[in-house]
Amino acid sequence: MNFISLIKPYQKRIAFILFCIFFSNLLSLALPWFIKIMLDRLLPAKDSFMLSVFIFGLGVVLLIRSLLNFLRKKQTAMLGEIMVYKLRADIFKHLRKISLRSLKHLTPAQILTRISVDTESVRAFIASDLAEFIYAMLSTVFIVCVLAWINIRLTIVAIAGLPLFAVFYFRVLPKLRCSYKLLKDSTADMVSGINEILCGMSVVRIFSGFAYEYHRFLKLQQNILKNAKDTYSFNALLWSGMDFFSSFGIVCILWMGGIEVIKGVMTAGDLVAFYSYLGMLFSPLIRLGVINSSYQEASAALVRINDIFSISDEVKVVSHPVKLAPLMGKVEFKDVSFAYQEGEYVLDRISFSVESGEVIAIVGASGAGKTTLINLLLRFYDPSEGDIFIDNHNLRYVDLDSYRRQIAVVFQDDYLFSGRVIDNMRYGRRRSSLQEIRDSAIIAQAHDFVSGMKEGYFSCIGERGEGLSAGQRQRIAIARALIRDPAMLILDEATSAVDAITENAIQQAISRKMRGKTVFVIAHRFSTIMNADKIIVLDKARIVEMGTHKELLARDGFYRQLYREQFDNNFDVETQCY
After folding, report:
1. Is the pTM here over 0.70, yes or no?
2. Which of 209, 243, 430, 567 suits 319 as a labelling partner, its CA being 20 to 30 A distant?
3. How many domains does the chain have?
4. In what order do the strands lie in the sheet with 344-354?
C-alpha cells in the first residue's frame, strides 16, 4: 500500500481539487503584474479611471481565487477524512486475519497506535500537505515562467543557486526520514509499556515493583527524547538552510536588478514585479521543505500500517469450502502434530475419534497440550502434520463461519466486554429474547446473582467484567455460550473459579441441555470429568491413556497417579473410597 493506492478510488474529487489548484495558482500571479502596470503606466499617466477599473478587476480576481482556495481546502480535508475512514475500517477488518501467534507479539497498544496515531499522520498529510505540495510545485513552475518573461538573465541568476539547495536538501532528507521512523517506534514502545504496566498494576503493587517500572518508563522517555532531538535537529537544519538560500538569492537579485534599472534595461515596475514574483518563488520552495517533514512522518506511519497488513492468517481459506449445516459433532484426530516453533512439538501424533453426542474429557499436567488441542479443534491453527475431521470432512476444507456458528467455547479466563450484562450474554446470539437469556443464565447458575444486581440483566459492568468475581464472570461466559444452543460445546477450565456445589449444579444442568450433543471438557478437578464417556490423558505432548474414569483408575497409569495426587493420597484404589 502507498499513497497513490490510497487516493486512487477518489479520482473525481482529486480532479476537482487539481482544477482549483491550477486556476487559483494562475490568479495568484495577478497582483505583482498589476503592480508593474500601475508603476510603469497608470501612475505616470495619472489615469485615475483606469486605476479604479484595474483595482475593481483585481478585487474580482482575488475573490475568485479565495473561493477556489476555499473549495480546495474543503475538498482536500474531506478527502483525508474519507480516506482515513476506509483505512481504519480496512485495518480493523484485517484484525480477524491476524494469526493468534502474531497477536501474541503485537500488543493492543501497538495495534491501537496504528489505527489512531498512524492513520492520523496519513490523514494529515493527504488532507492538507499533499494538496499543498501540488500547489507549491505548480506555483513554482508558473512563477519561473513569469520571471523568465520579465528578465531571463535575472532568472538564470535566481535559479543558479537551486542545485546547491538541492544537494543540501537531499543530503539531509534521508537522515530526517530515518530519525522520524525511530521517533515513531520509540513512541509506540512507550505506549506499549504503559499499557502493559496498567494491565498488570495489581502485580506491580503486590511485588513493590513500581520503582522498577518507573525506571523502565524513564528509559523509554529518554529514548524518545534522544530520537526527538535528532529529528528536530535535522528538521531545523533543513528549514534554516532553505531560509538562507532564499534570502541570499533575493539580496543578489536586488543588487543586480537595481544596476539594470539604473542602466535603463529594466523599468522600476519590472524590478518590483520581479522581486515580488521571486518572493513568491521561494515561499513554495520553503513550503516544500515543511511539507517534506509531514511526508516523512506519514511515510513512516504508512510503513507501520503496512506491517499490520503484511501479517496474514496461518489458517488458509480454500476457494470452495464445505458448509456444515447442521453440525453433527463427530470429531476425529488422525496423527496430528503441532509445533509453535519448528521441531518443538506441543502435540505429537495425536489420534482419537469422538462420536456425536459423546462427552470427552481432556486431562494432563500443565503444558501437556490440552488448550493447544482445543485451539486446533477451533481451527485457530492448522496442524503441522496430520488432519482433523469434522463430520468426516477435513477441517482444512470446512467453511469456518458455518462451523463456528454451531459451536460454543468457554475459556478459563473468558473475556467480558464493558457494558450491560444482557449484552454480554446476547453476544452468543444477537437476537436472543430476554426469556432465552434468563433460561441460559439459570443453567449457568448466573440468574440469582445477576437478578440481585442493581439493574438486573441491564446492570453495567467494566472491561473484562470489572466489578464481578472470577466465578461470576465464568458463569456469565457459560450463559453466553449456551444461548447459542450449540451442536458442540467446549469447556476449557470453565468452572475453575466456581465452588464445588455450584459447579455440580452447572454440570448437571449442562448435561441435560447438551444431551445428545458433543461436549469437550478440560478440567483439573476430577469431579468435573468423572462422568465423561471418554477421558483422554495427555503427557509430554502425547496421548498416554484413554478410557472411562473407572477403566483408567483400574490401570496403574498416569491417570491414577494424577488422581491420587489431587486427593492427597487418601484414596483407596481397591475399594474406590476414602
Report:
1. no
2. 430
3. 1
4. 344-354, 331-341, 385-390, 393-394
